[in-house]
């Protein structure tokens, strides 16, 4: 659960079924991170990313967003902000 306490943030979610199109890093520390700039993808360098369906949202102050287990997520502050994440199982 991602909760916005102050300010607002842009959130982009990607289904884990898209794993093969995300160009994940090979090393252990970043194995769940994409090499692609998901807000401005280089589709010449990462052509399979053009197949990825992204789910975008802006989370405002006082709102919470449920992020399903295993989903890839990218978060960017739209202004000075405070947020909290709560992880379940």
Automatic annotation (TrEMBL):
It is found in: Nucleus. Pfam families: Cupin_8. The keyword Iron applies. Its main location: nucleus. GO terms for cellular component: nucleus. The keyword Oxidoreductase applies. Its cofactor is Fe(2+). InterPro entries: Cupin_8, JmjC_dom, RmlC-like_jellyroll. It comes from the Eukaryota. One of its GO terms (molecular function) is metal ion binding. Keywords: Iron, Metal-binding, Nucleus, Oxidoreductase. Residues 1-89 form the JmjC domain. This is JmjC domain-containing protein. It comes from Meloidogyne enterolobii.
């Amino acid at each position: 659960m991602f909760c916005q306490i102050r300010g607002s943030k842009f959130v982009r979610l990607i289904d884990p079924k898209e794993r093969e199109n995300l160009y994940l890093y090979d090393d252990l520390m970043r194995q769940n991170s994409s090499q692609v700039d998901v807000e401005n993808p280089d589709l010449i360098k990462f052509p399979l990313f053009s197949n990825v369906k992204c789910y975008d949202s802006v989370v405002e102050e006082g709102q919470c967003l449920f992020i399903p287990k295993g989903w890839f997520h990218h978060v960017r502050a739209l202004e000075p902000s405070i947020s909290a994440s709560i992880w379940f199982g």
